[in-house]
Amino acid sequence: MFGLKSESVLKLDQEYHELDEYQGKESRWCPGCGDNGILAATQRLCRDEQLAPEKTVFVSGIGCAARFPHYMGTYGFHGLHGRALPVAQGVKIRRPDLDVFVNMGDGDCCSIGTAHWIHAIRTNMKMVVMLHDNNIYGLTKNQASPTTPQGRITSTTPYGNLLKAMNPLTVTLGVTNVSFVAQVVEWIPDLLYKVLREAYNHKGLAFVRILQRCPHFMPTAWDQLLSNPDKIAVMDSPDGVQLSDATAKIYKTRVAHDSSDLNAARQVASLEDEVPVGILYRNEMVPTYDELRRPQRLPEPELTEEILNRSFDRFGIFPSTSSKAGD
Ligand code: SF4
């Protein structure tokens, strides 16, 4: 047998990954764009979790937020409009050992990508899905998206948007197999980072809606929240995210919440006078797709060696033991 002895299996030296290893190209988002803060929090998360850059993948569709993979020093896939999730699922199903992140805008996710969004939630593959929600299509210059407020004049609604905005939280919380839903605003970096880290450590699909400033097309979208921090209701649950003292002094509105209660999460997600932030729902008992289709998720070291041995046996060239010199 052309086998490997266990002591001869190559082991790469553990190395510490610095923050700059997660930084890709220089961002081209507009000055003041909230995507910059989301990028910074995500790079910090990758550093603090010590994700191997070569085993981390960022997948996006089309839109301003979809530039995200270019700005990460990891692998990435900048795909088609609305199709980030099926690409991410393809990556995950073939390589469950990779850490997969998805970045979508509100148009990308909640309009053209709606079917993928619903079914990705239902499939519950382990990945972090970030919805950068700025209430507008930025890249295509001020077109109304599903989360654009009613009455808003845009290039596609010159007489004002007729429809009430969709609530991506209540939609997500209504899908079978939903297992993690959170909401944050990108201008509270402490909360943004902590929620993303919880999302990363969730077993299945973690959906995080991030309210994001677009100073170019929606300069006043979040004025009420920015000028009145009391409008931001922080979820207060025993297993929730704890704010730093400095952040807690500014954001004093608290809602006692049980994040394991799906109906409570739906109620909180429907609040209209205040914007709930934090983890709305978390259920680690929902099986992931990988657990359902392949109960033994990752090969044990012995199994890995066995698989390698079989490959070597298949392709190895073995000199005949019976041949003699001069034959
Ligand atoms: Fe950001 Fe808006 Fe500029 Fe797009 S248009 S980069 S969302 S500020």
Keywords:
327 residues, alpha/beta, Rossmann fold, 9-stranded mixed β-sheet, 30% helix, disordered N terminus, disordered C terminus, binds iron/sulfur cluster
- What hetero molecules are bound to the protein chains? iron/sulfur cluster
Query: What is the number of E strands?
Result: 9
List segments where confidence is low: pLDDT < 50 over at least 5 consecutive residues: 1-10, 323-327
- Kindly state the percentage of residues in helix: 25-40%
Identify the overall geometry: globular
Order of helices and strands: HEEHEHHEHEHEHEHEHEHH
CATH overall fold name: Rossmann fold
CATH architecture annotation: 3-Layer(aba) Sandwich
3D architecture notes:
30% of the residues lie in helices and 16% in strands. With 327 residues, the protein is an alpha/beta fold. The protein has one domain: Rossmann fold (3-Layer(aba) Sandwich). Strand 5, helix 6 and strand 6 form a beta-alpha-beta unit. Helix 1 packs across helix 6 and helix 3 packs across helix 4. 40% of the residues are buried. The site of iron/sulfur cluster has 11 residues, from loops.
Can you lay out the helices and strands and say which pair or pack?
Layout: H1 35-48, E1 56-60, E2 75-78, H2 84-94, E3 99-105, H3 106-112, H4 114-123, E4 127-133, H5 168-173, E5 180-185, H6 189-200, E6 205-211, H7 223-227, E7 232-236, H8 245-250, E8 254-256, H9 262-269, E9 275-282, H10 289-293, H11 301-315
The structure holds iron/sulfur cluster (SF4).
